[in-house]
Here is the input.
Amino acid sequence: MKSLRIFCAATLSAIVFLAVYAQAADKEKIIYQFVRASGGRGPAGGLYQDQSGNLFGLTDSALFYELSPNGSGGWSYSALAASDCYFPPGPLVRDQAGNFYNASNNGGSVCEFSPNGSGGWSSSVIYTFSDGPSGLLIDAAGNLYGIEGNGVNGFGYVFELSPTSGGAWSLTDLYDFTGTDGNASSGVSAGLIMDASGNLYGVTWAGGSGTTCTLMCGVVFELTNNSGVWTETVLHNFNGTDGINPAAPLLMDNAGNLYGTTTTGGASGVGTVFEISAPSAEFRVIHSFTNQSGDGAYPSTALIIDAAGNLYGTTEIGGLRGDCSVGSIQGGCGTAFELSPVGNRWKESLLHDFGGIGDGTSPSAFVLGANGALYGVSPAGGSNVAPDAGMVFEIVP
Here is the structure.
C-alpha cells in the first residue's frame, strides 16, 4: 500500500460543521477473515456488489474472490481466479456483459475477469501501463477511464481504454496535465467519475496553485468533451488550510454537488471532507478531522451517499483504540464515520473504531447494500491466526 502521509502545517479559521464524537453501540460485523492457507491475503481496493447482494473483490496477492449470502445470515466464500493485478488501486468495475475489470499498482496491468462458460472465471491482461494507473471508471459502452502518472508533460494524463475487434484494446490520451492545472505524477492517482453528459471529474494529489505545499496542494478538475477535444476546468485549487493531497475519487449527488476528501491539511492537518456546490461551484470544507476523541485522521478513500443525503467514509488511522502508528500520531487503526446534513451544517457520527488484530485496520471505501448496510475491506488486522491477512466487514448505520 502506498503511503498517503505528507505533512503540511495548516490552519482553518472557519469551518461549517458540527462534530459528534460519541460512538453508539458497536455496529461492525466481520463477515470473512482471510488466511494465507485458504483465500489469499490483503483484500484491497474495496468491493463491488451485484443486484443479488454478492460481493466481489481483489486481494493484494491478485486473487479474484466472491462472497455470497448463504441464506442463514452468513456468507460463503469462493476464490474465483488468480490474476496479474496485484495491489489494486480501486474496486472492481463491471460491464453490461458481466465482465469485471481492475488495475494493478504493481506493474501497471489492467485485468479482465470473464465467465469461462463452465461456471468458473478466467483472467487476462488487456493492457499494461509503464506506471501504476488509478482505479477504473467504466461507461455504458464498456470503455474504461483512469489516470496514469506519465504523459507528454510528465505530470500524468487522463486515458480511455476502448475495446476493439478481436478482443484488443485501444488507448487514447484524453488530457495531459501541465502541473499548474494538476499533477498526477506522484504515484497516487484517484479514479474518475462521470456525469450524465459524459463529463469527467477527478482530483490530482499534487499540482495547482497552492504554493504552501512543496509540490502544490492538489486540485479538483472537470474534463468536458467537445467533438472529441477534451478541455479541463480547475474547479478548486487546494491551499493547505482547506486540505492537501486529495487521493480518492469524487462523489456526485443527484443535484450535481461534488463531495470529496483530502488526506491531510485542514484545521488540524489530518484531512478534510469538502463540498463543491452545483451550479455555482462554491467550495467549502464541511468537516475537518482532528484525530481527537475518536475523530480519525487521514481520509484516503471515496465517500458514498444514501437516499437521505448522509455521507459515509473511512479514515486511514485514528480512533480511540488499537496500537497503530502513523508519523507522529500514535494510536488508532482507523474509523468509519457518517456525516449527516443538519441545516447548513454537518454532524459527524463515529460508526466504528477499528482495533487492529481481530478487528481490522485502515478500512477501504464502502459500498452501500440494498439493506442499508455498509460493506468494506481491511487489508490487515484480520484473525489472530493471520493478523496480516485482512478481512471483509459489514456495518449497519
